[in-house]
Amino acid sequence: MFGLTFGLIVIAIVLIIALIDAAPVFRDWFGRIHIGRFSDQRVWGTAVTETGVKWLTRTPKIKLTDNTRLIVLDMLRGNYTRPAIQHWQEASLLLGFHSYLSNNTDPKAEAAVNALIFSKFSSAGQWNHPPQQVDGAILAYGVMKHSAGLPEVYQAAMDQMWELIRDHIGEDGTVQYRKSMKDYRYVDTIGFICPFLVVYGLRYGKPECIELAVRQILEYERFGMLQGTSIPCHAYSTGTKYPLGLYGWGRGLGWYAIGLIDAWRELPESHKYKKPLEEAVVRFARTALAVQGEQGQWNWTVTRPESRADSSATAMLAWFMLNAAQIEEISRECAAAADSAILYLMKATRRNGAVDFSQGDTKDIGVYSVLFNILPFTQGFCIRLANSKDQ
């Protein structure tokens, strides 16, 4: 009797493990039936926004690893996801809904945004779980966009975010991605911190924050780009100035692009750094235009036309192009590139409005995910695109 019971328990455990592995595979297969059927941009915009509302309060977890077998082991080891990864997913959704709610009255969306923000802070405006890495700055940026009319409410939390960033400033005067890699500067960091630093500096009268954001961008342009281009490498060494990782990583271009364009957008026309950043926007735009794919996409490796398209890179660079089109000398080309990229993203959207085929989380410098799937971060940028097109 005991042996039979034990055997049934073992069978049940094996079935549960198999179901945990099989469920995502089945969900992706089913979700991709009739993918890419959107032909009207307004209908597409409504669909991606409606899906985004659901994800504001239940943001899908993004995997750390590429494991598709025995996923339960990653869960048990605490190696399935991390708060830092979720921060930039939530941040992008907040930014998307800032664009949406700036042009629409939607109580349901407003309630979902408020629920997400309130889940992050105490009634006194302090972080419930303070970010431990600079990745959290992009989430702080999203919160600041929604609390522009109440600058004092979350000031203590934003001050704490600034202190965290300041604690990561290295000997060269730029911000480290991680304390454990003090001599490396990652392209990701530009997207994470620079827009926050500009808005924080402007709102609370701290020009040193804006100085740091501009320095982070221009130093990367100086040391982290392929010679003669604006194609960034994944990272560079502050000591040797050697490039680290891949030149032309698609989401790496995206991180640089959104950090640069949102920092530029936030600065007033009269600010002394508006023109230097605008010049950087023009330089980067010309390079990014040259590596856009024929279908409007940017690939996960933009220098290889045969590599796989990445929806996350495409959404980020489309946002860059849409805003760079405000600059007269590159307006026509950038506007056309943004239109083409949106058409590609429509083709990559499932029938339920979820944008598919974004590269998974990066494992290390030069170690990139081979999985392409749903990413809330991409969804947020598609919501920004859909609701900023006519602004």
TrEMBL record:
InterPro entries the record matches: 6-hairpin_glycosidase_sf, 6hp_glycosidase-like_sf, Glyco_hydro_88, PolySaccharide_Degr_Enz
**Superkingdom, according to UniProt?**
Bacteria
Q: Identify a single GO molecular function assigned to this protein.
A: hydrolase activity
Q: Does the keyword Hydrolase apply?
A: yes
Q: Which UniProt keywords apply?
A: Hydrolase
Gene Ontology biological process terms in this record: carbohydrate metabolic process
Q: Which Pfam families match?
A: Glyco_hydro_88 (PF07470)
Respond yes or no to whether keyword Metal-binding is given for this record.
no
Extract the PANTHER family matched here: UNSATURATED RHAMNOGALACTURONAN HYDROLASE (EUROFUNG) (PTHR33886)
Protein name listed in UniProt: Glycosyl hydrolase
| Origin organism lineage | Bacteria, Bacillati, Bacillota, Bacilli, Bacillales
